[in-house]
Design brief:
CATH class of the largest domain: Alpha Beta
Largest sheet: 7 strands, mixed
Structural class: alpha/beta
Number of strands: 10
Strand content: 15-25%
Distance between the termini: 47 Å
Radius of gyration: 18 Å
Helix content: 40-55%
Number of domains: 2
Shape: elongated
Order of helices and strands: EHEEHEHEHEHHEHEHEHHE
Number of helices: 10
CATH architecture of the largest domain: 3-Layer(aba) Sandwich
CATH topology of the largest domain: Rossmann fold
Length: about 240
């Protein structure tokens, strides 16, 4: 038995539309049920199962970290890729979580390198105190561009994955991509041995990691509070 492994939401949705027989293992950031990929997390059904990174579940914690690091910030930006299927829900979830902290959210769209550049310029005009980078494979592949633009505009940027921080980003909080892809590999192996994907519950992370780049913080003129450093899983110096 063969199977397909996919690490992007658009690709997974396309695969679901293309086949109901070939086993598919996915790794997506959003809710697979809300995206229409599976019937339920416990019993996916049909020919699909995989991993969800629970990006929405981590939103309140990310905003709490922002408040701890930048208590004076009242307006923030959220950059989303309009091609990403969960983009609109990302924006609404962020705005709802931000309201509880009295924060104003400016939502900007980008799906090309030049649009990312333009978004940073727009944030400067809006006097945003920080930027959150939304989900999507396109953004992950632009980690170095984000780090360079953040330094150029002196703008604190918060991310979902440690890969951004390793490339020079400031702070990330989210599930481990490495662990998630490893679990997708485990599921693929089980399917190749004869198990049905629809019988394998969608894997959800039980741990989120906080990664901080102190070198970047120094470049931005930021002092990371000791309480935030104390709970960091990894500090890049």
């Amino acid at each position: 038995m063969s199977s397909v492994v996919l690490a992007s939401t658009p690709g997974t949705l396309a695969a679901k539309a293309a086949t109901t027989t070939i086993p598919i293992v996915f790794a997506v950031g959003g809710d697979p049920v809300a995206l229409g990929l599976v019937a339920s997390l416990k019993r996916p059904g049909d020919n699909m199962t995989g991993v969800t990174l629970l990006n929405v579940a981590a939103l309140p914690k990310r905003l709490g970290l922002l408040h701890d690091v930048l208590p004076a910030a009242t307006a923030i930006g959220l950059l989303i890729d309009p091609r990403y299927p969960g983009a609109e829900s990302q924006a609404s979830d962020m705005q709802e979580a931000a309201r509880a902290l009295g924060l104003q959210v400016h939502v900007l769209n980008a799906s090309t390198d030049s649009e990312i550049d333009a978004a940073f310029a727009d944030l400067a005009k809006l006097r945003a105190g920080a930027l959150f980078v939304g989900a999507g494979a396109f953004f992950v592949t632009r980690a170095e561009q984000f780090a360079a633009l953040a330094a150029r505009h002196a703008l604190p940027v918060f991310y979902q994955y440690r890969e951004y921080v390793a490339a020079g980003g400031l702070i990330s909080y989210g599930a481990s991509l490495t662990d998630s892809y490893r679990q997708a590999g485990v599921y693929t192996g089980r399917i190749l041995k004869g198990e049905k994907p629809g019988d394998l519950p969608v894997w959800q992370p039980t741990k989120f990691e906080l990664v901080i780049n102190l070198k970047t913080a120094k470049t931005l003129g930021l002092t990371i509070p000791p309480g935030v450093l104390a709970i960091a899983d990894e500090v890049v110096e």
